[in-house]
Amino acid sequence: MVRWNNQVYYKLFNQLRVNSFVSGKENYVFSESYIFSAFGDDLIPETEISELLKKAKVLQDTLKKKNIDLLLVYAPGKGSYCKEFIQDKYVHPYKTTNYNQFISNSKQQNVNYLDLLGYFEKLKPSTPYPLFPKFGHHWSYYGACIATDTLIKHIEKLHAKPMPHIFWKTIDVVDSSRSRDADVLNSMNLKFNPPQGMKLAYPQIEWEQDSTKNNVRVLTISDSYFYDQVYMQILQNSFGNGQFWYYNNKVVPSPKQGEKVETWELDLKSEIESNQVIMLMYSDGNLPKFGNNFIQDAYELYTSPTTYYNRIKNIKQVQEYAKQIRENPLLLKKATVFSQTNKITLDSAIKNNAMVLAGLIKNK
């Protein structure tokens, strides 16, 4: 009956029974927060962006002395790219967006950056295949291939060393979704799926096999958009077996086989300096939390190591308890109830309960 219930809401009221996702025009689906980003509704003060990028510039110059390059990448979100398919009720005039402010401040601060959002906009009128699917949250598989090729070539130029390239000789063009191109549709859990209504392209990717080129180790801090590159095996084939830090939290692949490892468990300095390139890539919907404190932590590490290590020591116990909560179903359920009762995010509830367990605050 769940599927029938979802079907009724979708068919009669054009509503998705998927948390934080909404319907658009012509069956497009969107994360509501990415719509807000496209119209500047999640705007953060430009002073905060400027301060963050000033620290990024200091970090960039510090790492460059160690022959390590820092690169900031601004990836396109579906709301900004597919703006014409957003319901009219969300559309309004706006002065600027976080994306515009990050681009202008990156130029002012002379920070290394790659504007993938702007590049996708340039490709939009002439691309032979969709760069975003109707029923997926992320860029299409074809769009991810274009992004992967662009990332590698840009890093290759920035670091001035050759890297293995991705390429394809054939492309499958089909009317059924593969990969993550229907991840939201799968979550909609309908009794009858609507027609896809577009042809999607799936390049048969190959990697240049040259071990002498695969020596640029890249550490990537990113949101879920980078998982497409991970699934394409960019880490092994072009990024020198570098790591992916998902929201600067989960480490992929785990350095301890069979165990979940989080970034706070690692030594930040040794991790940074074991790479030749540090890349932070966030889609515009996640720009308010760009880097998830990586830039702030790394900046403090290199400009004031004493205060950094004292601070990390003080919060490590809390993080250990927070990890236990996330991995223990009973503790996680308790945190979920706490978040709903107090109308706060689950992350905030987990942090609160971890501080209680650590004896830093009293149980509310």
Protein architecture, described:
With 364 residues, the chain is of the alpha/beta class. The protein folds into 2 domains: 2-303, no CATH class; 307-364, no CATH class. It contains 15 helices and 10 strands. α3 crosses α12, α13 (305-327) crosses α15 and α14 (329-342) crosses α15. It starts with a helix and ends in a 7-residue tail after the last helix.
Termini separation: 39 Å
Strand content: 5-15%
Shape: globular
Total individual domains: 2
- List the quaternary state of the chains: single chain
Helices and strands, with pairings:
Elements: H1 2-13, E1 21-23, E2 29-31, H2 32-38, H3 46-64, E3 69-75, H4 78-81, H5 98-109, E4 113-115, H6 116-123, H7 141-159, E5 166-174, H8 183-188, E6 200-207, E7 218-222, H9 227-231, H10 234-237, E8 244-246, E9 250-252, H11 268-272, E10 277-283, H12 294-303, H13 305-327, H14 329-342, H15 346-357
Parallel strand pairs: 3-4, 3-10, 7-8, 7-10
Antiparallel strand pairs: 1-2, 5-6, 8-9
Helix pairs in contact: 3-5, 3-12, 12-13, 13-14, 13-15, 14-15
